[in-house]
Design brief:
Blueprint: E1 2-4, H1 12-18, E2 25-33, H2 35-44, H3 48-61, E3 68-71, E4 74-77, E5 81-88, E6 94-100, H4 105-122, E7 133-139, E8 160-163, E9 167-169, E10 172-182, H5 188-208
Parallel strand pairs: 5-7, 7-8
Antiparallel strand pairs: 1-4, 2-10, 3-4, 5-6, 8-10, 9-10
């Protein structure tokens, strides 16, 4: 990452308005239809959560606001993305695992399985630090929830998505997702467009997953 002058970006006004706000985070809720992910995961023998994380990373890579993030009182620019997941460790407790995003779904799947396996076994977080703009996620897949608003401690400004169990509804599988983001990084319209892109990637992931799950 590198520091940039906010005045040289289209987030200059937002930086001035929100960088010192006591609560600068906004949360949007969206219901996604994840039926295609469920079918793809079963057909290819891969994890539903991995596929959703890839769709999130792919949608973020098409949303230019994800290249910027306020860190402390500075605006930083990143050229790499990662998606962080919460892993249940073998020894008990949880740890986070940052998965570097790449367009190649097969490579992302391999990295996801390798890194989460290492974190699960070691009980130690895998942290990419400042080398990537990290999108946090938390999957409460065992629980039927309608949404969640994450805490804001003033330390981490990274965008964060939370979801629970999907619900079958006629020919759809509906998943409620909450998306928290720093107002300096993006506005509500940018966030809503990003969530629409996540749905679009979900709908066409079968085209990209031809070889997934195969050796």
């Amino acid at each position: 990452m590198k520091e940039i002058d906010p005045k040289q970006t289209d987030r200059a006004a937002a930086f001035d308005l929100w960088i010192d706000a006591p609560m600068p985070m906004i949360t949007l809720f969206k219901t996604l239809d994840v039926k295609n992910l469920i079918k793809t995961a079963k057909r290819r023998g891969c994890k539903f959560n991995m596929l959703l994380c890839w769709c999130i990373g792919k949608a973020a890579s098409q949303t230019k606001e994800f290249s910027l993030l306020p860190v402390g009182k500075k605006l930083m620019q990143f050229d790499k993305l990662a998606v962080s997941v919460v892993v249940e460790a073998e020894g008990g407790g949880i740890s986070t695992c940052d998965i570097p995003f790449c367009d190649d779904l097969l490579q992302f799947d391999a990295d996801y399985r390798r890194l989460t396996g290492e974190v699960r076994a070691s009980c130690r977080a895998h942290d990419l630090g400042s080398s990537h703009m990290v999108i946090g996620t938390s999957a409460l897949a065992k629980y039927d929830i309608d949404g969640a608003v994450n805490i804001y401690a003033g330390i981490f400004n990274n965008p964060f998505l939370i979801w629970g169990k999907y619900k079958k509804h006629f020919r759809k599988a509906l998943l409620s997702v909450s998306f928290q983001f720093h107002h300096t990084q993006m506005d509500g319209a940018h966030a809503a467009a990003f969530l629409s892109r996540v749905q679009a990637e979900i709908d066409r992931i079968k085209i990209r997953s031809k070889h997934i799950g195969k050796k």
